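Practice problem: predict the structure.
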Amino acid sequence: MSALLSPDQLEAAIRQVGAERYHDKHPFHALLHGGRLNKGQVQAWALNRYCYQAGVPRKDAALMSRVTDRELRREWVHRILDHDGASGEEGGIERWLVLTDAIGLQRDYVISMEGALPATRFAVEAYVNFVRERPLLEAVASSLTELFAPSIHKQRIAGMLENYDFIGERAMQYFRRRLDQANRDADFALDYVKRNALTPETQGAAVAAVRFKCNVLWAQLDALHHAYVSPGLIPPGAFRP
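Answer:
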């Protein structure tokens, strides 16, 4: 970016990234939400997505390890607890395992991630490393795909309950909980970015960080589509329905 944007213009630029690049536009999601996948393909999606879910608290811990601002740490720590759980409450990872249980995957196998696609693992680690290594502003900005998440969660809840008789309401609790959590997290991160991206260079870096995160999510669906839809080339050692 060559010119300094106002906070509202910066927000608009970030939202434009989602409008163009968020993974709700990937063909695999149209198949998933439209009921056009078989059970084995849905299992492959849930198994690989577990790798991402398990990586989220790791990337948040990596971010917090670099933060000297106590108020930012205090705000950010609930993200780890949201996923790992606290005080007897199941977290997001446990709710995801309820989903994988419901569709017939062995829990130990899911947790081991042995059947995950190599590209899934590479994409998740790329995200964790980005948050660990890039400037703090970019690390925070990369979480802003949460701005676009509630709409895809709504589509997923409605589409999967309507189209798959092997999925029930209990399996959708991860997505229902994230409807509120994602909005809260995105509001905080967006405000942080708008207050701290004060030069054309840092604003451009923040927008690029959102673009990078969209690419991480898109790459995971590319791998799923290639392995389990077309051309159907499952790598050695990966899950086979």
